[in-house]
């Protein structure tokens, strides 16, 4: 034992790392040939490595990825989805088209030959025209289908006209947005806009 | 593989968060295994490896696309494991129920289809023994040993994961091997 070279242990580790120089390897070989203690040590080290390497490979659970995706921070994820929609407007429209097709869209478009207007106080209907009379204020959004709207008073909300025209008198005022929708695709977009926020929230899990 | 992962990272940066799912699929087993061997129980390994991926996602814009993604991910996961080991409450291991559950998990996770039940038990016991000795290593030796012999990373990669000079990594592996040798010599 006393004659063991000072650095023999280090040479063993160099050997195990596959990084031993020829000189050190020679010293190691020569010594192992005469020293059973060191030979035993090296043998044990090699066995130790083999044991650790024999550990079974373990796998993550089957729903691991799903769980990660569900736990991604919401803020960033929603931005991601919104970006996806804005990068893929046609696919978005197509997807939602398919979703809505089975729902109420076509029935609401199909039977929409008739005039209709959102029931709100202070609104007057004459010959398929909804009128917000001068001096009156309508509170809330108005949707007119298959007819026109004439605004002489004030609307505190959005006005949407489907298959019709809007006339805004000089005294008339709308605080919200005014939109005219005269084609089925625009109508679709209108439906989507109403639906898309809940659609996004559904995907984003909120 | 790195090229595929980098193309997915670019998608994630563009806002396509589903591309991140494909990255998780590539690395989930390796990262889970790292955490399992570092922490020694399935529940903590699951928590920590999940958190590693979430952190990678949150910080993805800080990843240097010219580096190796796996190294960066290993680094996040290893640091989380080390934090957890340091914070670990001493009474954790007294929870017998958790310990029992882990034994079952380990048993079911041993991939040993063609072995007889007796061989399975023997192998499981041997594995548990080795796992226990790995867990007894000081965390700085443990991380080096697990990255080297379980995850099979090169010394250079380990030095990048641990942010240490290669010489220091070697020293830690050598010391870790010596400790394990003394514990496992009589098997
Ligand atoms: Zn000797």
Short description:
Chain A has 206 residues and is α/β, with parallel strands linked by helices. Helices cover 49% and strands 17% of the residues of chain A. Chain A contains 8 helices and 11 strands.
Task: Characterize the structure shown.
Chain B: Residues 128-178 form the RNA polymerase sigma factor 70 region 4 type domain. Chain B: Residues 24-89 form the RNA polymerase sigma-70 region domain. Chain B: Keywords: Sigma factor, Transcription, Transcription regulation. Chain B: It comes from Pallidibacillus pasinlerensis. The complex is a heterodimer of chains A (206) and B (187). Chain A is α/β, with parallel strands linked by helices. Chain A is built from eight helices and eleven strands. In chain A, strand 2 (124-126) and strand 3 (129-132) form a beta hairpin. In chain A, helix 1 packs across helix 2 and helix 1 (8-16) runs parallel beside helix 3 (36-53). Chain A is rod-shaped and about 115 Å long. In chain B, 34% of the residues are buried. Chain B contains nine helices and no strands. The interface between A and B is large, with 38 and 48 residues. The structure holds zinc ion. Residues 4, 8, 31, 35, 37-38 of chain A line the site of zinc ion.
**How many strands in all of chain B?**
0
CATH architecture of chain B: Orthogonal Bundle
- What is the 3D form of chain B? globular
Q: Give the number of helices of chain A.
A: 8
Spatial shape of chain A? rod-shaped
């Amino acid at each position: 034992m006393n004659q063991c070279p000072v650095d023999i242990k280090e040479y063993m580790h160099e050997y195990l790392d596959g990084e031993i120089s020829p000189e050190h390897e020679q010293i190691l070989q020569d010594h192992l040939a005469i020293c059973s203690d060191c030979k035993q040590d090296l043998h044990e080290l090699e066995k130790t490595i083999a044991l650790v390497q024999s550990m079974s490979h373990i796998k993550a659970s089957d729903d691991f990825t799903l769980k990660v995706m569900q736990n991604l921070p919401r803020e960033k994820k929603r931005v991601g989805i919104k970006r996806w929609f804005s990068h893929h407007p046609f696919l978005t429209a197509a997807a939602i088209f398919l979703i809505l097709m089975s729902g109420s869209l076509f029935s609401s478009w199909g039977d929409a030959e008739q005039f209709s207007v959102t029931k709100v106080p202070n609104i007057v209907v004459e010959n398929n025209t909804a009128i917000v009379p001068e001096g009156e204020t309508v509170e809330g959004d108005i949707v007119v289908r298959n007819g026109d709207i004439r605004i002489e008073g004030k609307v505190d909300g959005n006005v949407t006209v489907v298959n019709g025209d809007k006339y805004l008198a000089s005294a008339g005022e709308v605080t919200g947005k005014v939109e005219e929708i005269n084609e089925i695709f625009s109508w679709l977009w209108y439906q989507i806009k109403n639906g898309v926020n809940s659609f996004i929230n559904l995907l984003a899990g909120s | 593989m790195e090229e595929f992962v980098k193309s997915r990272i670019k998608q994630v940066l563009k806002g396509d968060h589903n591309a991140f799912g494909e990255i998780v699929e590539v690395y989930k087993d390796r990262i889970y295994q790292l955490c399992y061997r570092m922490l020694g129980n399935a529940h903590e390994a699951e928590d920590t490896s999940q958190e590693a991926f979430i952190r990678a996602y949150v910080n993805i814009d800080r990843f240097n696309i010219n580096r190796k993604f796996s190294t960066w991910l290993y680094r996040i996961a290893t640091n989380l494991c080390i934090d957890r080991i340091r914070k670990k409450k001493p009474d954790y291991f007294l929870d017998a129920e958790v310990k029992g559950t882990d034994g079952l998990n380990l048993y079911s996770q041993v991939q040993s289809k063609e072995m007889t039940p007796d061989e399975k038990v023997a192998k499981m016991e041997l594995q548990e023994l080795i796992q226990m000795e790995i867990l007894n290593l000081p965390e700085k030796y443990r991380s080096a040993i697990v990255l080297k012999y379980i995850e099979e990373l090169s010394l250079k990669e380990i030095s990048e994961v641990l942010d240490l000079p290669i010489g220091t990594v070697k020293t830690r592996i050598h010391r870790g091997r010596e400790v394990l040798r003394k514990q496992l010599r009589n098997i």
